[in-house]
Amino acid sequence: MTAPIRPNPPEGARASVAIPVPWAGPGFAEFVAIVALMMAVTAISIDNLLPAFPAIQARFAVGDANHLQLLVYVYMIGFGVAQIVYGPVSDALGRRPVLLAGLAIYAAGTVLAMVAPSFGWLLAARIIQGVGAASGRVLSTAIVRDRFAGREMASVMSLIMMVFLIVPMIAPAVGGMMLALGSWVWVFVSMLVLAAICTLWFTWRMPETLHPDYRRPLSLGATAQAVLTTLRCRVAVGYATALGLLTGCIMGYVGSSQQIFDTGLYHLGTLFPLAFGAVAGAMGAATLVNARVVRLLGMRPLSHAGLSAFVVVGLAQVGVGLAYGGHPPLALFLGVLAVNQFLISFAMPNFNALALEPLGAIAGTASSFLGFYTTILGALCGFLIGQAFDGTVLPIGVGYATLGALALLVVAWTEHGRLFRGGVSG
């Protein structure tokens, strides 16, 4: 890929202010792969730990199985809060040094988890892991925004999200294989290996993507100005809120999945990774389709249609749960859930791109703040769904239908009630 970096100028500035910088980095496919791996570190750090919940419960004598969900949610809290730091720092210092520092923090948290003497220590280590992994979430989005815009950006983000979503298909299986080596500690070893691969590949192949003219001073005032600019952008706030609500659906499912498929409801045992992977596969397939179709239809029409259908299927999911007293046949439950995961994948990547589209001049800080907001909102909503687990699938269905309906209302507010209409770029 030899095209120059094409950053969007700050609001009110002429397009000719920033001189394009020739691109000396990897080709398109490798670029997508590297950025996807940055995000995959986050995904595998959640999902490959799920099969280890019973072993961890036994090791630390955790009385309530619902408390094991904290291993997911405290990670997401650390992951969410830290995002607000990485963006402004990367806007001042560049993307490369900040990402590498974040990966070092992640590695430190992983090592602490491996030697945890108590459940509280393990939770603290998971927070540190989340703080480090946040760098990949913020900077992957900022790096894409540094190089692409409009439907092209949405297509790239969809390809990255496809790889990111394929990881959960294999993550529990990887966790299961690590457990077979004799201990839940080996699950964290796999996380450490992935982080090392990401560090080496990024260091070797990815140049700095932040345009020199767009470096911002590292100061509270500059950061506050960028945050205010973000908050004043109706499109950014609206789509970020909708994305956070849909993230809550995913987090509620992830937090409850081990209990639903393994110990609390369907008792699949070693087949749990297969059920989990089947649902994740639906998301990966939809994201690949989105990457191809979004260039033709635009982000808004496609994501609005996907969200609307998601709400309808969410209501059907509740109906199926009620019809079978909260315990529908496994094949039926998996089928309805996979359809909803398929549909949600037409909304989430596009919502992320739409939220950042007007904020190219402050991509790092905007990605940081919006990532913080959507992650915390998603983690809290997911925590409520997960803690409501009562041995049935009803909390998941009600959560999907409720959060999906709220997200649709927020999108309608964002677009002044004009849904399904594409703009110049979206």
Automatic annotation (TrEMBL):
GO CC annotation, single: plasma membrane
Bilayer topology annotation: Multi-pass membrane protein
InterPro entries from the UniProt entry: MFS, MFS_dom, MFS_trans_sf
GO molecular function: transmembrane transporter activity
Top-level taxonomic group: Bacteria
Major facilitator superfamily (MFS) profile domain boundaries: 31-416
Transmembrane segments: 21-46, 66-86, 98-117, 156-178, 184-204, 235-254, 274-293, 305-324, 330-347, 359-386, 392-413
Name by which UniProt lists this protein: Bicyclomycin resistance protein
